[in-house]
Amino acid sequence: MDWGIKNRLSRLIQPDGRCFFLPIDHGYFQGPTSCLEKPGETIKPLLPFADALFVTRGVLRSCVGAVGSKPIILRVSGGTSMVGKDLADEGLTTSMEEIIRLNASAVGISIFIGSDYERQTLLNLSKLVNECENYGIPVMAVTAVGKEMEKREARYLALCCRIAAELGARVVKTYWCEKDFEKVVKGCPVPVVMAGGPKCKTELEVLEFVHDGLEKGAIGINLGRNVWQSPHPVAMAQALHAVIHKKATVKKAHALFKEIENKK
Ligand code: 5RP
Predict the structure, then answer these.
(1) 128 Cβ inside 6 Å of ligand 1
(2) Residue 75 CB less than 6 A away from ligand 1
(3) Whose CA, among 38, 69, 162, 229, lies 20 to 30 Å from 54?
(4) What is the pLDDT of residues 74-96, one digit of tens each?
(5) Could you tell me if residue 254 is inside a domain?
């Protein structure tokens, strides 16, 4: 691996081999998502616990301070909305010059396998990899399911992750699943991080699936709504940080969550 790409990846994946990415890119298709109306305010107390931010160039420029910022994974695909025809119909939104100008540590792009736009989004990924590799910028592929949340099962996720890696993604973001998640990770030759999806009912549920996914080989999370839509986002971020970087058990992390929650 070339020095530049290795260096950028090392900003994102910590020396313990783990990572906690905080996505705040939801507005690119959802508009002002609940609890993310003012992204700059949402992230302020959470930043100490995150290793990187996943964000579009617009929110980065207008809501994230450039001085002392966490490493940035720039969301560079889009062009669709919740009220449009098909969330899968994405294109590349951000030029190579812009990615470099914003000093991105990596870029992120969605692929929609099995959708009408499978080919288009896979070619978007390939084109992005071709360009980014020239400049030592790693690409994170997001195995997106749009509104079809039932697609989150091992066979489908393993297919998506493997294809993303085959096309050159350096990191793949996918969903955790209850059954056979280890097969998803094993079939993917590059690191896998877990997304959260819509908010779970309890914080305990989130800590349990993150812990399970790490045990089964994922290197970390890219978790948004289950952090900042929690009534206690700081406690949640801290508890997740403990699971990821301090090898905390679910019981310990939940106790930590409760302790911080009760202090408020
Ligand atoms: C959708 C995305 C999201 O915008 C986001 O990055 C994921 O975060 P969450 O944990 O809220 O699902 O990439 O595919």
Answers:
(1) no
(2) no
(3) 162
(4) 999 999 999 999 999 999 999 99
(5) no
Give the per-residue SS3 of 159-227. Answer: HHHHHHHHCCCCEEEEECCCCCHHHHHHCCCCCEEEECCCCCCCHHHHHHHHHHHHHCCCCEEECCHHH
Q: How far is the CA of 198 from the centre of ligand 1 (A)?
A: 9
> pLDDT-based confidence at 235, cuts 50/70/90?
very high
Render pLDDT for 17-70 as a digit per residue (tens, 0 to 9). Answer: 999 999 999 999 999 999 999 999 999 999 999 999 999 999 999 999 999 999
The residue whose C-alpha atom lies closest to atom 13 belonging to ligand 1 is 142
CA–CA separation, 156 and 94 (whole Å):
28
Q: State the catalytic residues.
A: 173
The answer to whether residue 120 is domain-embedded is: yes
- Residue identifier of the C-alpha nearest atom 5 of ligand 1: 23
Q: What angle do CA 143, 148, 152 make, to 5 degrees?
A: 55
Residue 252 lies in a domain: no
CB 27 less than 6 A from any atom of ligand 1: no
Is 73 inside a domain boundary? yes
Identify the CATH number of the domain in which residue 32 sits.
3.20.20.70
Domain count, the chain: 1
pLDDT at 200: 86
